[in-house]
Give the backbone structure.
Amino acid sequence: MTFSLTSPFRKTFSNSLREKGLRPTKQRECVYGIILDKRDHPTADDIYYRVKKYLPGTSFATVYNCLETLVGCGLVRQVNMDRSPTRYCPNLTPHAHFKCNKTGRIYDIQIDEDTLSRMNALVPQGFEAENIDLSFSGTGNALEN
Ligand SMILES: [Zn+2]
């Protein structure tokens, strides 16, 4: 069984890698596809176990290298919360994260243009933000989907 990306993602994937002079390998495609598939902010371990279902011979080191490559190409971003292991997110639009303290699940919170510009205005004079890393955590009664 192989993992194939759907067409818009496939194009973004190969273009982003080629821009960096890298080849779109089967492993890289599989790792990227898995992150896009569930969008549950998996850790490297989670991704490794999912990759094994498609490419059983893949080592953890290979998965880790693929992740580094995908982050380096700007296809995936790293999410670091508390002291927990790094998670991976394919949502490249400006967004914050919300972690449910009960379930450990992480949700994307979209940041609209207005909020984004107000947050950028908080940056010290003479500087410009290239990246915003904002996270919330808490509990609630929202239904898990
Ligand atoms: Zn995210």
User: Anything to note?
Assistant: The chain has a mean pLDDT of 92. Residues 41, 79, 89, 91, 95, 97, 108 surround zinc ion (CB under 6 Å).
